[in-house]
Amino acid sequence: xxxxxxxxxxxxxxxxxxxxxxxxxxxxxxxxxxxxxxxxxxxxxxxxxxxxxxxxxxxxxxxxxxxxxxxxxxxxxxxxxxxxxxxxxxxxxxxxxxxxxxxxxxxxxxxxxxxxxxxxxxxxxxxxxxxxxxxxxxxxxxxxxxxxxxxxxxxxxxxxxxxxxxxxxxxxxxxxxxxxxxxxxxxxxxxxxxxxxxxxxxxxxxxxxxxxxxxxxxxxxxxxxxxxxxxxxxxxxxxxxxxxxxxxxxxxxxxxxxxxxxxxxxxxxxxxxxxxxxxxxxxxxxxxxxxxxxxxxxxxxxxxxxxxxxxxxxxxxxxxxxxxxxxxxxxxxxxxxxxxxxxxxxxxxxxxxxxxxxxxxxxxxxxxxxxxxxxxxxxxxxxxxxxxxxxxxxxxxxxxxxxxxxxxxx
Length: 410
Ligand code: FAD
Ligand code: A2P
Known about the structure:
Layout: E1 9-14, H1 25-29, E2 35-37, E3 42-44, E4 66-71, H2 78-82, E5 142-151, E6 161-167, E7 180-184, E8 198-201, E9 215-221, H3 235-241, E10 248-255, E11 268-274, H4 278-290, E12 300-306, H5 315-319, E13 327-332, H6 343-349, H7 351-358, E14 363-369, H8 373-387, H9 392-401, E15 405-409
Parallel strand pairs: 11-12, 11-14, 12-13, 14-15
Antiparallel strand pairs: 1-4, 2-3, 5-6, 5-10, 6-9, 7-8, 7-10
This protein binds flavin-adenine dinucleotide and adenosine-2'-5'-diphosphate.
The site of flavin-adenine dinucleotide has 22 residues, from strand 8, strand 9 and helix 3.
Keywords: FAD, Flavoprotein, Iron, Iron-sulfur, Metal-binding, NADP, Oxidoreductase
Organism: Paraburkholderia acidicola
Domain FAD-binding FR-type: 139-261
C-alpha cells in the first residue's frame, strides 16, 4: 500500500506535528523501530520505514497518516522533521501516485485493518458507536469551563487523584466511553516552545458526567515523581489538579477510534485497570448502569488495582454498586501487614469465572493503567485460558482481530 513507487520516488511517511499528541503509540507499535522522537516531535525514519502500516490504525488522532511523494534523494531527514511545527506541503508529484490524505476535522474515523504486530485490537467492537475524532486540534482548540475539581484519594495518602469536570457549554464535543481528550497546559517548556498536549481518558459516559449536560469528567493523578522516583512536578497534571471552578482550559480532541465499548446489551465487559486506568472503566460502567435494559444478559467483571483502598479512586461509589450489576474484584499492593496483591493475582483467584468469559464470543476485554501491568495481565489471561484447555494463541488472535482485546497503558 505504501511501497515505494520506483527506485527513485518515495511515498514518504510523515507525522503531522500539529495533530500529534505525543502519546508514543506509534513508536511502541512500529515493528522495525522506524519511529523516533525528541522533546519536540515524533518522526519517521525514511530509510527504515517499509510502509507496513502497523502504526496507522492504533494512532488515536490520525496524525500518523500523512504521506508526501518526492524523489528519494529529497526525503526529509530525521533532524529536519524534529524541528517542524507544521508539515511541508506536497510539492509537484514526481510520479503518478496519490498520497493518502490525513483525516479532516470532524471526520468519522474508519479504523484500518487489524495488523499482526500489536498486542491488542486495532479495530473497535463490531457494535461500537462511530466515534468523532480531531474535532479540535492544536491549531484550533476549543475551551471548557471547570465545573468541579475534587480529590478522590484520601487526604492522608501520597497519591493525589482528582475527579475534574469540564463543561463545554454550547460547543459541540461528542464523546464515547473509552475516548480521551487532550489538554493544552499554558506556558512554555525550558526550550521556549509551547507545551504539547497531554492526553486524559474520559471518565464519564457519552451523555455527560451529569446526564443530559455537555460535560465530561477526567481522573487525573498529580505527578510529583518521575518514573524513576525522582521528585518532579508534572506540567499538565499539576495544572489540572490545581484548577478552580470557573477556570477555562484549552482542549483538543476527542481522540481514539478503537478502545470503545460494544453497544450490544448482551456483550460482556471484562475490565482490568490500575489507578487512573479506571477512568474508561467508570465511563463504560456508568453507561451500562444508566441504560440497564430489561432482559439484557451482558455481564460486567472488574479487576481494579491500587496501593491501598484509600488510594483507589471511586472506592466508595464502586463498592456500592449492586453485585448483580458488576462483579468487582479489588487488589491492593500496599495494605499494611497484607501480602502484595496485583490485579493479575485477583484474576487467577477468579480463574473459572474469567475463563467462562473468555469462552464467550460476546466478551470484550479492556486493560488500562500502568504500562507495567500489560505483560502480567496478558500472562494471567494465557494461564487462565490454558488452564481451561483453551489455546491462548488462537484465542488471542481472535480477540485482537474481532476488536475484543483493548490495551491502553501509559
Ligand atoms: P510531564 O511534565 O509530562 O512529565 C514529568 C515527568 O514525569 C517526566 O519525567 C515523565 O516521564 C514523568 N511522568 C509522566 N507521566 C507519569 C506518570 N503517570 N507517573 C509517573 N511519572 C510520570 N493520566 C492521568 O492522570 N489520567 C488519565 O486518565 C490518563 N489517560 C491517559 C491516556 C492515554 C492514552 C495516555 C497516553 C496518557 C494518559 N495519561 C493519563 C497520562 C497523561 O497524559 C500525562 O502523561 C500525565 O498526566 C503526566 O503529564 P504531566 O504533564 O503532568 O507530566
Ligand atoms: P505497587 O505497590 O507495586 O506500586 P500507582 O499507584 O503507581 O498508579 O499503581 C497502581 C497499582 O498498580 C499499585 O497497586 C501498584 O503496585 C500496581 N502495580 C505496579 N506494577 C504493577 C504490575 N506490573 N502489574 C500490576 N500492577 C502493578
